Structures are given as structure tokens and as C-alpha cells.
Amino acid sequence: MSNIFEAISAQAANVAPFGAKLKFVLGEEVILIDGTGTTNVVSNNDEEAGCTISTDVDTFMALKSGELNPMMAVMSGKVKIKGDMGLAMKLQSLIS
To answer: Which DSSP symbol is given to 73?
Structure first.
């Protein structure tokens, strides 16, 4: 599971801060990307976020590898999005 955290941390460092907080809930693990400062900060803090994306690890890995289309994952219920959909659209740059 820590490899997902490390991958998101590395990718978030290469993406400009997006002015909000985005939270992934992957089973029991929470990964929070805080893009409100001068850099994106990734942590395991379970805080309020502008957008929360909930899924399981297998689905997340399929999204990351490109095997699963994000829109299909949402439509089929494999991924649940709560909050700002605009933030969810920035997801691709953070996981691929």
C-alpha cells in the first residue's frame, strides 16, 4: 500500500498546486493531497477535503495503469466521488 502513497507523492510533486484538498479513500487507507499551499503536500491525514474519491486498491491500480477508464469506473460504481467534480477531473494528472 505504501507504494501507492509513494507514487502519488512523487506525481504530486510534479503537478502545480490546484488550490484545494483532494482525498483518496482506498479501503482502510486515506491519502490526502493538500494543494492549497505553494506545493502539493501528500499525507495520510483524514481531513475534510473539497473532493473525496473512494475506491478499492485493485480499482485504483487499474485506473493508474490505464486499464480502467475513469468515467466507466464512476458509472459502474467502482469509484465514488463526493464533493467538487472539477477537482476529480484533475485526478488523472495525479495518478498517471
So the answer is: H
Q: How long is the chain? A: 96
- Indicate the burial class of 49 (C-beta count within 10 angstroms; 0-12, 13-18, 19 or more): buried
Specify the pLDDT at position 96. 61
Q: Is the pLDDT of residue 92 over 70?
A: no
CATH of the domain at 68: 3.30.1050.10
Provide long-range contacts, Cβ within 8 A and 24+ apart, for 37-40: 39/13, 40/12, 40/13, 40/15
Average pLDDT of the segment spanning 52-77: 92
Tell how far CA 8 is from the center of its chain: 8
Domain extent at residue 57: 2-95
Work out how many domains the chain is built from and give that number.
Answer: 1
Q: Which helix (H) or strand (E) holds 32?
A: strand 29-34
Query: 57 with 4: CB under 8 angstroms?
Result: yes
